[in-house]
């Protein structure tokens, strides 16, 4: 082997930089001349060029992770993938960041079977036929509303299961369109708005309950038949039609009130129906109106319009989903239910009485010789209330209110005669819209009387409050409530009496959280406002869609007569 064929080893040349660390400037190779040099700092540590002991993608152990969180940046074989800054003046041009993680890419779907099913459901996969059937069911059941035949959730029984496949009303009420009601009277173009009072302001008023003085009693009442106290769901009685005449004359047309006005007995005159509506105004939802007449001598008459809302009994006015207000002739529409409730109240108050009559001091002021034998049992008690401010001694500043109140029956208790007001609650169809979640009376009235009464107090808060106030104004000892239901839910012409219950009016008002001081405060504020108005005719109207009370100035009383005639013509059509 010659010297030319033998392997040779040459030591690389060593260049000594006399000016400091690093290579000498005169010996730098040509390919590295234009690349900047990043000097190392004293805290930098060099790692391995290649670490074959740590597999690709191995995670750091918990101790190392905790150490890094605490700020220990010492180098070991597990943190070699972490990006480090070498040199005091780290140049970003040399920093390389791998944005894509190739280890997570896989062509084969290696997920479990359960994960695949959940993914298919999320994107609408799975059984296509089941999806089509479900979509059709959603369309038939009203779109986004929850259907009753679906499984209820465990949230305290909010949704109840029913086999009738009917829609449960009350679900997503916040998502329903606002009902737009019409006003109770057509507002003329020349009517002027004098004042607007929010119900929130009315609910803060208060006035001491005035003492009542009886100034006259007229008519006669029959004695209540106690046999109806034993009526229950197993011993029900059919409601019969009894043809009797009962006068409900307006305040201004009452001959007794006209006599009191001429005698200057008081300053303000009203009936118990008008006054109770004012005292319970904050509970009302449906529109209503009251006619205010201011005479030349300063008298104020709170009156009603013939054929107005005072002549009908509302049904489930305060329910979360009141009866439908449609023009179709259906038995469960709002107008049909009002007519049905009015019919039930009239006949129930006549059926539960005996033939024994109790006469008042004076005969019925509205009776004639032709109708004397056909009069319904009704006693009219005229009572006077003092609405003067406390400490008022001047007779001219005193405000006296005369109210015509009504009682329906009499009860003999220990040789004394007490008066009773008789009213009836009616059930139409527990499964229909507007039922307000009421329990079926034929199954629940005897066993769950408290739940039935609580539901009625919630759905008919305004109506029951007015009945309690009317009984208190008339100084009735009892308020008799009857429970009348349809004999068949699909027939509104036949009804059965399922039971009766007696309440003391003051206790009944307290059960409903009815503040009498607030009611008299509303009456006092309205009376003071009316006394300041000039002579004329005014309309006090509840806004049909907002809790606001508005006062309009009517140019002439003939406008109200024209409105009444137009309403009668529309009803006849």
Automatic annotation (TrEMBL):
Chain residue ranges for the region called Disordered: 48-75, 117-171
UniProt main location, coarse: cytoplasm
Region described as RNA gate: 309-323
Positions with biased composition (Polar residues): 55-73
Record organism: Helicostylum pulchrum
Domain remarks: The RNA gate region regulates mRNA cap recognition to prevent promiscuous mRNA-binding before assembly of eif3d into the full eukaryotic translation initiation factor 3 (eIF-3) complex.
Native organism taxonomy: Eukaryota, Fungi, Fungi incertae sedis, Mucoromycota, Mucoromycotina
Biased composition (Low complexity): 128-140, 149-164
Protein keywords: Cytoplasm, Initiation factor, Protein biosynthesis, RNA-binding
Self-association and partners: Component of the eukaryotic translation initiation factor 3 (eIF-3) complex.
Record protein name field: Eukaryotic translation initiation factor 3 subunit D
Superkingdom of origin organism: Eukaryota
InterPro entries, per database record: eIF3d
Function: mRNA cap-binding component of the eukaryotic translation initiation factor 3 (eIF-3) complex, which is involved in protein synthesis of a specialized repertoire of mRNAs and, together with other initiation factors, stimulates binding of mRNA and methionyl-tRNAi to the 40S ribosome. The eIF-3 complex specifically targets and initiates translation of a subset of mRNAs involved in cell proliferation. In the eIF-3 complex, eif3d specifically recognizes and binds the 7-methylguanosine cap of a subset of mRNAs.
Family that this chain belongs to: Belongs to the eIF-3 subunit D family.
């Amino acid at each position: 082997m010659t010297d030319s064929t033998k392997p040779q080893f040459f030591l690389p040349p060593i260049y000594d930089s006399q000016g400091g660390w690093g290579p000498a400037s005169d010996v730098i190779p040509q390919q590295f001349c234009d690349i900047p040099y990043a000097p190392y700092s004293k805290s930098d540590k060099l790692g391995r060029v290649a670490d074959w002991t740590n597999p690709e993608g191995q995670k750091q152990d918990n101790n190392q992770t905790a150490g890094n969180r605490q700020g220990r940046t010492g180098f070991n074989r597990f943190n070699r993938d972490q990006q480090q800054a070498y040199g005091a003046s780290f140049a970003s041009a040399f920093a390389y960041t791998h944005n894509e993680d190739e280890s997570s890419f896989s062509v084969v779907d290696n997920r479990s079977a359960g994960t695949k099913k959940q993914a298919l459901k999320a994107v609408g996969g799975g059984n296509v036929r089941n999806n089509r059937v479900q979509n059709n069911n959603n369309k038939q059941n009203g779109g986004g509303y929850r259907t009753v035949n679906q499984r209820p959730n465990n949230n305290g029984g909010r949704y109840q299961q029913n086999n009738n496949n009917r829609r449960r009303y009350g679900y997503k009420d916040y998502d329903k369109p606002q009902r737009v009601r019409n006003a109770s009277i057509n507002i003329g173009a020349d009517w002027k708005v004098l004042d607007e009072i929010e119900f929130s302001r009315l609910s803060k008023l208060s006035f001491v309950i005035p003492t009542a003085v009886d100034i006259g009693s007229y008519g006669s009442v029959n004695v209540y038949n106690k046999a109806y106290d034993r009526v229950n769901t197993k011993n029900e009685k059919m409601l019969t039609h009894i043809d009797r005449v009962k006068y409900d004359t307006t305040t201004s047309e009452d001959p007794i009130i006209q006599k009191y006005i001429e005698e200057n007995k008081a300053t303000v005159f009203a009936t118990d129906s008008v006054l109770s509506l004012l005292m319970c105004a904050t509970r009302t939802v449906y529109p209503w109106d009251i006619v205010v007449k201011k005479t030349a001598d300063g008298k104020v008459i709170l009156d009603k319009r013939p054929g107005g809302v005072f002549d009908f009994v509302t049904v489930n006015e305060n329910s979360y989903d009141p009866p439908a207000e449609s023009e179709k002739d259906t038995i469960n529409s709002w107008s049909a239910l009002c007519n049905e409730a009015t019919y039930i109240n009239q006949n129930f108050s006549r059926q539960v009485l005996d033939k024994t009559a109790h006469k008042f001091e004076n005969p019925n002021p509205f009776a004639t010789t032709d109708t004397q034998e056909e009069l319904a049992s009704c006693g009219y008690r005229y009572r006077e209330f003092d609405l003067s401010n406390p400490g008022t001694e001047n007779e001219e500043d005193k405000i006296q209110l005369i109210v015509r109140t009504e009682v329906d029956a009499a009860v003999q208790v220990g040789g004394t005669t007490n008066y009773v007001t008789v009213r009836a609650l009616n059930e139409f169809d527990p499964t229909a819209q507007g039922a307000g979640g009421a329990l079926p009376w034929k199954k629940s009235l005897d066993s769950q009387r408290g739940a039935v009464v609580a539901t009625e107090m919630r759905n008919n808060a305004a109506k029951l409050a007015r009945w309690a106030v009317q009984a208190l104004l008339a100084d009735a000892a009892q308020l008799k409530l009857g429970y009348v239901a349809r004999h068949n839910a699909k027939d509104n012409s036949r009804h059965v009496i399922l039971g009766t219950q007696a309440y003391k009016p003051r206790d009944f008002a307290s059960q409903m959280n009815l503040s009498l001081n607030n009611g008299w405060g509303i009456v006092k504020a309205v009376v003071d406002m009316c006394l300041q108005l000039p002579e004329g005719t005014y309309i006090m109207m509840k806004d049909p869609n907002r809790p606001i009370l508005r006062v309009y100035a009517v140019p002439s009383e003939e406008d109200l007569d024209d409105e009444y005639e137009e309403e009668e013509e529309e009803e006849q059509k």
